[in-house]
Amino acid sequence: MSVQEKKILLKVEHLKQYFPIKGGILGRTLNYVKAVDDISFTIYEGETLSIVGESGCGKSTTGRAILRLDEPTSGSVEFDGVDLLALSKKEMNKMRKNLQIIFQDPYASLNPRQTVRQILLEAMEIQNVLPKNERDKRVLELLELVGLSAQQADRYPHEFSGGQRQRIGIARALSVNPKLIIADEAVSALDVSIQAQVLNLLKKLQRELGLTYLFISHDMGVVRYISDRIIVMYLGKIVEMADKKTLFENPQHPYTKALLSAIPSTDIDRKKERIILKGDVPSPINPPTGCRFHSRCPFATDVCRTTNPELRKPKHSNEGHLAACHHMEEISSPKPLNI
Ligand code: SF4
Q: What is the CATH number of the domain that holds 225?
């Protein structure tokens, strides 16, 4: 089944998240941090869509805005046909059992004074999942599902390793039977070998439970392993979006190419092609005019400095591939770009 025939689970349209910067004696709004600036995308049921980009690109803010952990400035978020932004706070809290989040640091999000059993029971109680007398049995099932044992149910979070704590975080998310899990840098704090174990666990759970993931990461290597489709964000905007194979084999946006070239490789030719970006990511308070990437792009021309490139399908690519660059066809061509 092609991605287009699949059921849309989440539809985000023109999402903006501007955070006011207050100042002066009166605490007036002086400016805004434009953390997410007009992005649209869909997630299909059963897939893993990743958002990748450097720190400050707006990827985590997008996850939080979808869940309304921070109220979005504007746009729409439709989950399973329900307009999430139109729900009351109470309705949204109820809805959250369908959309769960796993954070980078599970320790910070687990109550240190509760045992694993209490953590899981509390999550089920809040969302009124299962009759009370069935919840204890479910705790043990959940532990088994994430690769922990029944003997560990009465231990406290500090008695576990980082990888095990992330498994507890996953068990807590699963305890309310969600349809969508947002994994926000969920493996970034773990050692590489433990990362692989947790990623494999997430894949296994997806197969067994039919879960849908929005996977947020700065790490292209991790994203390559877990994703079906990938969105690349830069300074609050989507700059490229494609299925994984297309993005890795036929990237169009210079920023995507730079991210891909930075993946460690033993291939000497690949190393030679590494694109080093100049400078840091500019401030999202006053983002560059035109293409936001122009201040770091080796291919920037005058039009890049004045006109924002819209997302469009590259000439020589497949449906579903979108990139936002005025010059992508010229940059992709074998001829050197005369600029
Ligand atoms: Fe670079 Fe211009 Fe393309 Fe932006 S639009 S990525 S500045 S070439």
A: 3.40.50.300
